[in-house]
Amino acid sequence: MNTVQAQNRYSKVYFPGENFPSIAETDSGYVVMVASNIVLNRLLIREFNNQGNLLVSDSVDFNGVIDNKGHSIHRISSNSYIFAQTVFYNGDSTRISLLKFNSKNWDTVKSAEFKFGLLKDPTVKSLEPSIDSAKFVLTGNSSIPGVLVNLDLLLAQFDTSFNLIWEKTYSDNLVNANGGIQGGAVLQSKDKGWIMSTFSDYLNSFRKGFILKTDSIGNELWRKEIFSNQPTTFNNIIEKNDGSFLSISEKVVTSQGGFPSDIEQLRFVNFDASGSVLLDTLIGPKLQYFGVARVLKLPGRDLLVLGITYDGGQSQGLIYRCTENGDSIWMRKYYYDDWQDLSQIYTGIVQKDSSIVLAGAFADQVNTQTGGIYLWLLGLDKYGCLQPGCHNIGVDELLIPKTPNFEIYPKPSSGELKITWNQKQDARNFPLDFEIIGLNGKIILKRKINEHSGKEFSTKLPGHISNGTYIIVLSSNEKVLLRDQFSLMR
User: Fold this and answer.
1) Per-residue pLDDT tens for 140-171?
2) Following DSSP, what letter does each residue of 440-465 receive, concatenated?
3) pLDDT exceeds cutoff 50 at 1
4) Which CATH number fits domain 4-380: 2.130.10.10, 1.10.1740.10, 3.40.50.10490, 2.170.190.11?
5) b/e per residue, 314-330, with b = 16+ CB within 10 A?
6) Distance separating the N- and C-terminal Cα atoms of the chain
7) What is the largest CA-CA distance in the chain?
């Protein structure tokens, strides 16, 4: 297999038989913890440097089959990490297992298992630190052993010594339904309460999303139900700078026979602090399946949506960048080795230098040994670039505000755009780069604005540019001076 690498940009696969990784940053790179698909009771620990080179490989074996869903690791100090997983024992009995590791040698320094009720089996879905960093909570399910009926949502808080502080469960209003509330994402809000984004999944394909708010000790304050008869997964929650909340899911916009052929967009739902819906809209490009795996909040006001698409007929990983108001910035799609194989992204981190590391799985369709599933890691720059040359898309790590120095009109445009500036620009800024960029990050049009252009620049848009929404970028020496959005309607 080929490996793509340039500076800290890389796409590599490792260790057949690994899937659904969890990832956390270290001082010199990052660590990945993942359940083995070959030895089913084995947790694999892999530490990498910033170039994606393997530094440490270790493992821990258990007495039962283990499982985790890719959001289950938390760094509590410079050398200490907590990990959560589900352990399935014989006789349909399960436990949630908590582990504390010392990153100097990745030895297990503490472990504990929890049942949460004599007649219920728990599973863990995600792990989240509290604001004071001395405690953490986990979310998951609680269910009757061996029966997929009335799954309850589980929320439990521990200190870093694994002492259980409190536990709560939350039920759906439906009775005797085949399914229930799935464990989703959890976040401690500014008021020190907890807010969860999740969904109910029933065997008759009925689904509804949930946003559920509690106080600091898990007492339910309110819940918002979002109904849908389509496969919809609310598995992320973000608190915006204004104190409201948002969750992003996928939604079918054109039915083409079901998964994975349906055309989908992202459903962007914004709630205020009391659960009232402020905005429920569709954002981003239309793709053949647009599965959301995780949403990361970047420094400032932007978000990274990590996920999967079947655009073009086969599974590819993708990241989509937008503002916290739902304005599109760019999108990237990735596959390893051959686009006809399966490439999927499950999670990721943004490092201190704003570079991006993504973790997922690559399924080799040719190699049938162990199912041909490999751990897949990508190292990207802050623009989501794997190869040099795609970074000049006019996107900085923060949203570039509109300023009175520039004006772009008309909007919408029928085929011509004009840029004016109302005060003299520093001559060192010229020539300016003027770019029109599609929502997938592709540069559609590029022009130079020279100083002798005066205080107005005009360009006619070529006929091959189709109607739609585009981003305008004005930059000088790779420094973004202006980014704006417009619609073309001929």
Assistant:
1) 877 765 555 567 888 999 999 999 999 998 88
2) TS-EEEEEEE-GGGTTEEEEEPPTTS
3) no
4) 2.130.10.10
5) bbbbbbbbbbbebbbbb
6) 46
7) 80
Per-residue DSSP letters for 103-141? TTTTEEEEEEEE-SSTT-EEEEEEEEE-TTSSEEEEEEE
Question: Which residue, chain included where needed, has tokens 């599609």?
Answer: 438
Residue with tokens 């916009």: 253
Q: What is the DSSP letter of 386?
A: S
Q: Within 10 A of 21 (CB to CB), how many other CB atoms are there?
A: 26
- Token pair, residue 1, equals 């297999």
What length does the chain have? 490
Q: Which residues neighbour 193 within 8 Å (Cβ) at sequence distance 6 or greater?
A: 213, 214, 215, 216, 221
**Extents of the domains making up the chain:** 4-380, 406-488
> 418-424 long-range contacts, Cβ below 8 Å, gap at least 24?
418/456, 418/457, 418/458, 419/449, 419/456, 419/457, 419/458, 419/474, 420/455, 420/456, 420/457, 421/455, 422/455
pLDDT tens across 461-473, in order? 888 888 777 888 8
CB 373 within 8 A of CB 386: no
Whole-number Å distance between alpha carbons of 192 and 167: 16
d(C-alpha 206, C-alpha 486), whole Å: 38
Among 317, 268, 329, CA closest to 289: 317
Strand ranges in 313-423 using DSSP code E only, listed in sequence order:
316-323, 328-334, 342-350, 356-363, 373-380, 406-409, 416-421
Local structure of residue 27 (DSSP, 8 states):
S
As a whole number, mean pLDDT of residues 110-117 equals: 87
H or E element that contains 188: strand 179-188
Domains 4-380 and 406-488 share a fold: no
Closest C-alpha among 346, 328, 332, 245 to residue 292: 346
Confidence label for 3 from pLDDT (cuts 50, 70 and 90): very low
User: Hey, what are 310's tokens?
Assistant: 């079947």
At residue 452, φ and ψ (nearest 5 deg) are -75, 0
Domain 406-488 falls in which CATH fold? Immunoglobulin-like (2.60.40)
Question: Is 70 exceeded by the pLDDT of residue 198?
Answer: yes
| Phi, psi dihedrals of residue 429, rounded to the nearest 5° | -75, -20
Q: How far is CA 267 from the centre of its chain?
A: 14
Per DSSP, the residues of 128-176 read EE-TTSSEEEEEEEEE-TT--SSBEEEEEEEETT--EEEEEEE--S-SS
Yes or no: say if 330 and 393 are a contact pair by the CB < 8 Å rule: yes
Geometric angle at alpha carbon 23, from 323 and 66, rounded to 5°: 125
Of the candidates 411, 412, 416, the residue with the CA atom closest to the CA atom of residue 461:
416
Of 452, 367, 449, nearest in space to 408 by CA: 449
The DSSP line for 261-325 is: TSEEEEEEEEE-TTS-EEEEEEEEEEEE-EEEEEEEEPSSSEEEEEEEE-TTSS-EEEEEEEETT
